[in-house]
Known about the structure:
By secondary structure, the chain is α/β, with parallel strands linked by helices. The chain folds into 2 domains: about 10-170, NAD(P)-binding Rossmann-like Domain (Rossmann fold, 3-Layer(aba) Sandwich); about 175-265, Orthogonal Bundle (ProC C-terminal domain-like fold), CATH 1.10.3730.10. Helices cover about 45% and strands about 15% of the residues. It has 10 helices and 8 strands. The chain has helices at about 20-30, 60-65, 100-110, 140-150, 165-170, 175-190, 195-215, 220-230, 235-245, 250-265, and strands at about 10-15, 40, 55-60, 70-75, 95, 115, 130-135, 155-160. Strand 7 (about 130-135), helix 4 (about 140-150) and strand 8 form a beta-alpha-beta unit. The longest helix is centred in the C-terminal third of the chain and has 19 residues, at about 195-215. The two termini are about 35 Å apart.
Amino acid sequence: MPGGDLSTFNVALIGAGDLGAAMARAMIERGGLMPVRLRVATTSGKAPRLAGWKGIKVTTDPAAAAGAADITLLAVPPAMAGALSLNSPRGPVISVMAGVTLERLTRIAGHDRVIRAMSSPAAAMGLAYSPFVAGPGATCDDRALSRALLSACGLCDEVRTEDQIDVFTAITGPVPGFVAAFAEMIADYAVARGVAPNVADRAVRQLFLSSGTLLAQAAPTAAQQVRAMIDYAGTTAAGLEVMRASGMKDDLARALDASVARARTIAG
């Protein structure tokens, strides 16, 4: 299969909410998927977020959509997983439903050519991080097709164990999530010291844009960046030393643990 090219494949999308629609946009705009090759199943039989593309077929029947597809993407809320049954579609089934295990996906699909993944609505901009783990029946071609689909959304990696998908559900799934919470705290700090709220908001948005851009480069790593600033012993080093001596790292770990735990129970 040509690297990352979905142009010759039929894709079924089950669920077209924020995440499903974002991934569909990525597949069409960056993965080469032709809209006429996309079949969407929703409870309403409508997909307003995808109305800008002509030729997309929309149905209320997930099994019918999957039956005609080379790959099926499940992007419904995890609470709806219990109502899904795909009746053994011919192609692999990839899920971005939080907390829905490979074992359960096998029952939903009707076969064991299943892939469990996580992504985020940042897929619409090609900025998602999408880890995946393959089920026991997934072939090399299934994994390659899944990688092509997820790579259209941004970066992706195949991870070694299923429990790591729950970890990434907490870390990279809720964009902007924890990053937004940290940005809020910095903005609140500035406002409490007399900075106008709109100025604080603008400054923090630009800070995280520039920081994310720099951190996205191949080198140095985040740890190396922190070490370099501490070694420089400037103004930032003074604050970083306080952070390192505080319980912030442990507090963050507890917060992420709570999110991971919820990821493992959210599907019921």
